[in-house]
Design goal:
Keywords: DNA-binding, Membrane, Transcription, Transcription regulation, Transmembrane, Transmembrane helix. By secondary structure, the protein is mainly α. 73% of the residues lie in helices and 0% in strands. The termini are close together.
Length: 202
């Protein structure tokens, strides 16, 4: 994305998270982004189109950034990748509450689920099943990924509402997910509580 597109996406996330939907006018978007209406109309077809575009870009950026960081740190074991990815996203919601609230509100929509099911986390789940790290049937992969998404969205909510710290929510959620996938308790707890890579900018 160019600089203008990034500003528009950031403004859109703030407004959509605050409103809980796409009940936003083009004038409000232009004002929030600090751009002229002409610039907005050259870059945005409609509020609805911008919503889909911003959500798609955010989900892709989150998953791709996490994957790159873990690849660089040689985090290769599927359960460790899953636990690390969960904790990184929960931490990011704490550090960027606007993004977190957007994901809490829209993370379980049909589009968001489709995007997650075609991204790096799904490939890691499938690799864990293929290599026997998860003791579940291959045809459970989609259901397992849906479980992960629901658990992560819930964990972000508990953090944003002040019920848990990001460390508590991320660690407990990651451990419970690994246990559900068949990783034994002691190992699941260890994988879900190790050091985290630094969070890069999206």
């Amino acid at each position: 994305m160019n600089a203008t597109e990034k500003r528009l996406h950031a403004a859109a996330l703030r407004l959509f998270a605050a409103r809980g939907g796409t009940n936003v006018t083009m004038s409000e978007l232009a004002e929030e982004a600090g751009v002229a209406r002409g610039t907005l109309y050259r870059n945005v077809e409609s509020v609805e189109q911008l919503f889909v575009q911003a959500r798609t870009q955010l989900v892709a950026d989150l998953h791709d950034t996490n994957a790159r960081v873990m690849d660089a740190d040689r985090v290769l074991d599927p359960p460790l990748r899953l636990a690390t990815g969960i904790r990184m996203i929960v931490r990011r919601a704490h550090e960027d509450p606007t993004m977190g609230r957007f994901l809490v509100q829209f993370g379980m929509t049909d589009g968001s689920l489709r995007e997650a099911l075609s991204g790096p986390p799904m490939r890691d789940v499938e690799e864990g099943i293929r290599t026997g790290r998860y003791t579940v049937a291959p045809d459970m992969a989609i259901s397992l990924m849906s479980l992960v998404i629901g658990a992560v969205v819930s964990a972000m909510w508990t953090v944003l509402e002040g019920h848990q710290t990001w460390r508590e929510a991320g660690t407990v959620t990651a451990e419970l997910i690994l246990r559900a996938f068949g990783v034994r308790g002691e190992e699941a707890a260890k994988l879900a509580s190790g050091p985290l890579p630094e969070l890069p900018a999206l």
